[in-house]
Amino acid sequence: MNVFDIAGRAMSAQLVRLNATASNMANAGAVTGSEKQAYRAIRPIFRTVTESPGISTVKVESVVTTDAKPVRRHDPNHPLADKDGNVWEAAVDSSTELVDMLEASRMYQNNVQVLQTAKSLMLDTVRMGK
Known about the structure:
46% of the residues lie in helices and 25% in strands. By secondary structure, the chain is an alpha+beta fold. It has one domain (3-128). Helix 1 (3-27) runs antiparallel to helix 2. 16% of the residues are buried.
């Protein structure tokens, strides 16, 4: 594994994280007629990959649905309301999702910078040899 592999895998993991957050944000506020059908936020699970001592990166192990409970709201006039007049709103905390999106975006940008720095150093090294 070299610096390009490590940063590339990290960027891939952050992209999965950004996609999960985007999905959660897209479904925030969605309403259904039953608790079972209500959208629940998803989160990627990461695993550290170590191929040799001192060198490790990350891998997306899986994407799981959170245990957050949908919010029940009494709205008998809503077309999706159940027989008791209740609807369930998606179990997504928009504030948490925004923070997660910012964090994943910054980590992605950091890895882009790592790749740019490594490329620049390699080019400078090649120029020194000429």
